[in-house]
Specification:
With 199 residues, the protein is α+β, with helices and mostly antiparallel strands. It has two domains: 15-63, no CATH class; 75-193, Jelly Rolls. Helices cover 20% and strands 29% of the residues. The protein has helices at residues 15-33, 43-63, and strands spanning 81-82, 92-97, 104-112, 117-122, 127-133, 136-140, 150-152, 157-160, 166-170, 174-182, 187-188. The strands form two sheets. The chain has a six-stranded antiparallel beta sheet with strand order 1-2-3-10-5-8, with no helix packed on it. A five-stranded antiparallel beta sheet has the order 7-6-9-4-11, with no helix packed on it. A hairpin with a 6-residue loop joins β2 (92-97) and β3 (104-112). The N and C termini lie far apart (82 Å).
């Protein structure tokens, strides 16, 4: 009579949890061996660092997804926040997938208020824009000329090649979905237009 083997059951661990577990194991090994300089820190600092790390992982896991995870997000689940300071004030952003400021694919949504203006600029990498709601006016060139802008309406799409000089503006509230390869950047034709540089 032949013995039957018990099948091994493997549980898929999400990449974020896998990475965190590996990092935590390395840290604990370093702490116990005394090879990590942080062993000289007091207990309070160690506990604070671990708690902060756990809080960051939990917050990041709620909005970011690994490339091999399926992503399902409904409009009501979007987590909106202020856009980065490189964009003019008033814009809101919700990251749907990836990290726009790191290498790799990302998808985000921008909510732009009425009469929002994005001065002439360009990006190092290509972008794909889909208008979720409203009408976004996009023009090409180094000068913002309203009459030359294309009206891209709800459901419309625009492919923006890398380093293409362009500008955009709204007349009413617009939500636009942007996807591409990170890291995202924005280079203003006139550096004075960069709100992050304005003090």
């Amino acid at each position: 009579m032949q013995a039957t083997e018990t099948p091994t059951v493997t549980r898929k661990v999400p990449p974020a949890q896998r990475d965190f577990a590996a990092i935590k194991a390395k840290q604990q090994a370093a702490w116990s061996s005394g090879s990590d300089p942080s062993v000289r820190e007091d207990r309070f600092m160690k506990k604070s660092s671990i708690l902060l790390g756990l809080a960051f992982v939990a917050a990041f896991a709620a909005t970011a997804h690994a490339a091999d995870d399926g992503v399902f997000i409904n409009t009501g689940d979007l987590k909106w926040g202020d856009a980065p300071p490189v964009l003019p004030k008033g814009a809101k952003v919700a990251v749907l997938n990836g990290d726009p400021f790191k290498p790799g694919q990302y998808t985000l949504r921008l909510s732009l208020p009425a009469n929002y203006k994005l001065p002439p600029h360009w990006h190092t990498l290509t972008e794909n824009l889909t208008i979720v709601s409203g009408t976004l006016y996009i023009g090409m060139g180094d000068n913002a000329v309203a009459k030359d802008a294309h009206a891209v309406k709800t459901g419309g799409y625009h492919y923006l090649p890398a380093k293409q000089h362009h500008y955009a503006f709204t007349k009413s509230t617009v939500v636009v979905q942007v996807s591409g390869e990170g890291p995202f950047d924005i280079k203003y034709i006139d550096p004075k237009d960069n709100p992050a540089g304005a003090k």
